[in-house]
Amino acid sequence: METSAAIELAKHTLMAGGIVLAIGVLTGFVAQKIKIPDVALLLIVGMAIGPQALGLIDIKADSALNQIILLFGASYILFDGGASLRFAVLKQVWITIVIIATVGILITAFVTGVAAYFVLGVPWIVALLLGAVLSSTDPATLVPIFRQIHIRDRVAQTVMSESAFNDAMGAILTFTVLGVAMGTSEFSLSSSIVDLLKQSVIGIVAGVGLGYLAAMLIAHERWGFLSEYAPVVTLVAVIGAYFAADGLQASGFMAVFVFGIMIGNKDAYGFRMDQGEARKLDEYVSTTAFIMRLFIFMLVGAQVDFSLMGQYFWGGVVVVTVLMLVARPITVFACALPDRRAKWSVRELLFMCWTRETGVIPGALAGLLLGMKAPGAQMIASVTFVAILMTILIQAPTTKWLGKGLGLLEEK
């Protein structure tokens, strides 16, 4: 009986995977034809085929399969995003990235928390906990958008880098506020800063080390004996970078992002791949990232709990509107304007104000709070679902239109 049950589970999982791939490819094709980022359409289709609608797939949010897809999928998408960044551009805007991914998180969390306190009528600490969960942007959403829409390099790379680096800060802030809310700790600014620095430095070191090693093995003139196996090397190294950092209590997502930057800039330290092998690697990475995108956003859509979301829907809409139209602009202008080196134009800042999609990472934090029975966890999960739907369905499809209107769209 156990063997039979295992086989049935395997068949069910394989069938669900086939459905996601088949419908996802068609959805991606439609998104391409109507010229909108596919993440928005994938989310809608995921909701339609989930257990609360057509019931074609039913993969639980707390299942091992779902967690594997989220961890590896988000990691590989981050690697893909990092590989598209260039040192020359990052040198111009690194100050903005650091400030907006640290101080900016605090500003966003506070403004959103104030809105939640007055709109939802929850205690201050619960409102701030919601603000902390929603404070970070989502690289798994933003990286694919900028892969499909060619916005001015320094703007796109700033937004993608911020989204990768602010995950650690968002998670630290969330669990710091949670400790206060549950009475297990007191807020300590110094310990939070030390924790952030530790996570950041270890994550960056792990990414740099493994990135350099992988680049050497696939592109070094003498030691690049694995050049034909470059796609497999990236898979192993992405997993290795994540767990190397995670095992040292640092940000695994930051490590894989930095790893991607190292691979994407291997020419800068003298490594060259054969043109055919480089093209093969690019095609493999883009295809794998697309498959991960299908699974992540269709599963996120399928797991939206309509009954839970409905409990705080209208209040959540107001809070998320404040997040999008008040908290984000304040954050961008307060953090980017002081960077005299970057010399941001008003049009560039306005564009960055609009690109702050909420997605996988805040959703995962909300799920953790539900599992831990944190104060206000039901409300936080409900508003987080609303934020995911609103930001992806409103901001993602309008990114190209806004970029064109502000004169930031580039043809490539």
Structure write-up:
The protein is mainly alpha-helical. The protein has one domain: Up-down Bundle (Na+/H+ antiporter like fold), CATH 1.20.1530. It is built from 16 helices and no strands. Helix 3 (about 65-85) crosses helix 6. About 50% of the residues are buried.
Q: Briefly, what is this?
A:
The protein is mostly helical. It has helices at 2-34, 38-49, 64-83, 87-120, 124-134, 139-148, 153-181, 189-219, 230-247, 252-264, 275-302, 306-311, 313-336, 346-354, 360-371, 377-405.
Question: Which fold does the CATH topology refer to?
Answer: Na+/H+ antiporter like fold
Please compute the radius of gyration using only Cα atoms: 21 Å
Identify the overall geometry: globular
Beta strand %: under 5%
The count of helical stretches stands at 16
Number of DSSP-assigned strands: 0
Percent of residues in helical segments? over 70%
Structural class: mainly alpha
SSE map:
Layout (H helix, E strand, L loop, with lengths): L1 H33 L3 H12 L14 H20 L3 H34 L3 H11 L4 H10 L4 H29 L7 H31 L10 H18 L4 H13 L10 H28 L3 H6 L1 H24 L9 H9 L5 H12 L5 H29 L7
